[in-house]
């Protein structure tokens, strides 16, 4: 009979795989994949492709270099392919919002249906909580990888070849996006543990972020020395990421990883103490 720790890891992995099962083996997951494919078709066909074509014009490059240089984001044009530059600029702000909607239903629906009480008869609350969180990360890693692959295919179709540096750039974008999304996934794990529906979890997350940002903004207005506190909000490092390029982007990964740990600790506490 396995010990407590191996059993916890095995149960956590089973719940993580179940998130992939829900994506590929259920009608709800098929609709989600169809929506994902449709959205990315239009994003690739119009904004990404059209912008990448425009970025080949010297006048456009010169104008954007001046504009982005004024805000410290001139490196945004230094990616190996213009498609990756546009993809990076779009997803670094678009993906966190999408994750708040897609990762909202981690444990809340199971609690409202009574399924969570049944699951805890055979597994621990920790394995359920962390398993669903890791499963969401696996789903995000897969979908980001597919969207990046489609972007590279679009670039090959336009230029006829794939620069070797493009694969390295795509890997960096994939890794950075996963790190960026971790705090938002952990936030939805916490909100999902607090309420009984995904809509309430989304509303709670949006209201919480808005309320905290509002209170901190008010305090900073009256006490300017507290301005550095705003940098600890989820997503605060996103403008700095756009200003970095290459492996330098990973120097901003410490804050989102710390935010993820703090939110997961809070979510685990709620999961352990809240009635099922």
Characterize this entry briefly:
By secondary structure, the chain is an all-alpha fold.
Structural overview:
Helix 7 packs antiparallel against helix 11 and helix 8 crosses helix 9. The longest helix is centred in the middle third of the chain and has 35 residues. The mean pLDDT is 84. The chain has eleven helices and no strands. With 276 residues, it is an all-alpha fold.
Q: Main β-sheet, in a few words?
A: none
The unreliable regions are none
**Mean pLDDT metric:** 84
Net shape? globular
Proportion of residues in extended strands: under 5%
Q: How much helix, percentage-wise, in residues?
A: over 70%
- Tell me the series of helices and strands, N- to C-terminal: HHHHHHHHHHH
Number of helices: 11
What structural category arises from helix and sheet content? mainly alpha
Radius of gyration, taken over Cα atoms and rounded to an integer in Å: 21 Å
Oligomerization state: single chain
Distance between the termini: 28 Å
- What is the β-strand count? 0
What structural keywords apply?
mainly alpha, 76% helix, 276 residues
Strand and helix map with partners:
Elements: H1 4-24, H2 27-54, H3 58-70, H4 82-102, H5 108-113, H6 115-119, H7 125-159, H8 164-194, H9 198-222, H10 238-243, H11 254-273
